[in-house]
Amino acid sequence: MRSLERDPAEATSMIDLIQPLANRLDTLFAEPLFRILLLAAILLAHFGLRLTFYNRLNSMGWKRATIKRIEKIAFAETWITPFVLGWIFFHPILSWLRGEARLEVLPVGVLAYAAFCLVMGGLFGFLWLLWRPIWKIQHVSAKRDVQVHDVSKQTGLTLARTRKCRWAAKLPMNQIFEMAVEQIELPVVGLPEKLDGYKIAHLSDIHLTGQVAPDFTAHAVSIATDWSPDLIALTGDIVDKQPCVAWLHGLFSPARAKDGCYFVLGNHDTRVSDPDVVRDRMTDAGWIDVGGKIETVSLRSLECQLLGNEWPWFTRPNDPFISDESIDFRLCLSHSPDQFDWCRRNGVDLMLAGHTHGGQGQLPLAGPILSPSWHGSRWASGDFYRSPTTLHVSRGLSGVHLLRIRCRPELSLITLRCPGS
Ligand SMILES: [Fe+2]
């Protein structure tokens, strides 16, 4: 164990910086209870910063294998660092907690790391608190009628195809098979009057892995089609496993919408041997691939643009089109909500996205924590507005993780409304 006496030769400018701060904290947190709270805050910040890193890492367009490798190293480091530091410096920390020693009994490197956690954890913690759904900052107030379908009971089918899935489905509070069919009246700033009442069925994050029976997706497609929408939109992560590519035609060919069914791909669609085969199978099933494209379409006789943004895993349109004033309405299908600013820069009126799965789980009041986005859990799910774009983020229908807590799979049936109508 390291000597508690510090060698004077170690004196550095960092010590000059850290020790006065440590002395100030010693004075401020003189009571053992306050010291315990300070230690808890440092630990909370340590874990919070790793979560912040995890969310950003998964928003990158890097290869999945690379991200998973970094994730494993980061996960190990998350637990090893506090455990090793706690083990090596157990007695000095205990003495400090009891008020028998000052913080300077710890090496300057440990103090610097604790200060880093407090400062950066405080900064990211503040931003995390700021974007909690309960504050409704930049949220759109949309009328919602939610019906929960216990798909297994309604179809009479066994949805779990594997032992792992059967086991997961039985976990208390797990909602993987409780589909929330949400009829949303969504006010869209800039919506032409002619499009008031326009109906879009929005599906996202199908994640055909083979764990869940395709009947779950078929149920969603059937409800979407029965609703008689003007348009059906699918925002990526369609298939994870190669054998499930064979399911695509049977699952998606029954979909019908007056102005067509459109799709983009997501990051999980890179897991099959050739994502272009997914595009081909979807196209064969009657769907229109807008990935990386701009389609000019006539919606209720208005000239509109449909944009497909698959960035950063595939492509996004790069033609400058905002100056085209003949366009009455722009709708963008994007896998990731991180493209919100891109949509805003390019004059998109309505953006539909998925990818974040609503956080896969939501805490009471605090909402989601895990969310593979550069903005963390800020856009994990829901309806948002930042001029000139309205954004709807779906929680998606499934996922590779067979667990959803307070975060039901979502099928959105969106009716567009002129604000105030
Ligand atoms: Fe997904």
UniProtKB/TrEMBL annotation:
<keyword id="KW-0378">Hydrolase</keyword>
<dbReference type="InterPro" id="IPR051158">
    <property type="entry name" value="Metallophosphoesterase_sf"/>
</dbReference>
<dbReference type="InterPro" id="IPR029052">
    <property type="entry name" value="Metallo-depent_PP-like"/>
</dbReference>
<dbReference type="Pfam" id="PF00149">
    <property type="entry name" value="Metallophos"/>
</dbReference>
<dbReference type="GO" id="GO:0009245">
    <property type="term" value="P:lipid A biosynthetic process"/>
</dbReference>
<dbReference type="InterPro" id="IPR004843">
    <property type="entry name" value="Calcineurin-like_PHP"/>
</dbReference>
<keyword id="KW-1133">Transmembrane helix</keyword>
<keyword id="KW-0472">Membrane</keyword>
<dbReference type="GO" id="GO:0046872">
    <property type="term" value="F:metal ion binding"/>
</dbReference>
<feature type="domain" description="Calcineurin-like phosphoesterase">
    <location>
        <begin position="199"/>
        <end position="358"/>
    </location>
</feature>
<feature type="transmembrane region" description="Helical">
    <location>
        <begin position="33"/>
        <end position="53"/>
    </location>
</feature>
<protein>
    <submittedName>
        <fullName>Probable phosphoesterase ykuE</fullName>
        <ecNumber>3.1.-.-</ecNumber>
    </submittedName>
</protein>
<keyword id="KW-0479">Metal-binding</keyword>
<keyword id="KW-0812">Transmembrane</keyword>
<feature type="transmembrane region" description="Helical">
    <location>
        <begin position="73"/>
        <end position="90"/>
    </location>
</feature>
<feature type="transmembrane region" description="Helical">
    <location>
        <begin position="110"/>
        <end position="131"/>
    </location>
</feature>
<dbReference type="GO" id="GO:0008758">
    <property type="term" value="F:UDP-2,3-diacylglucosamine hydrolase activity"/>
</dbReference>
<dbReference type="GO" id="GO:0016020">
    <property type="term" value="C:membrane"/>
</dbReference>
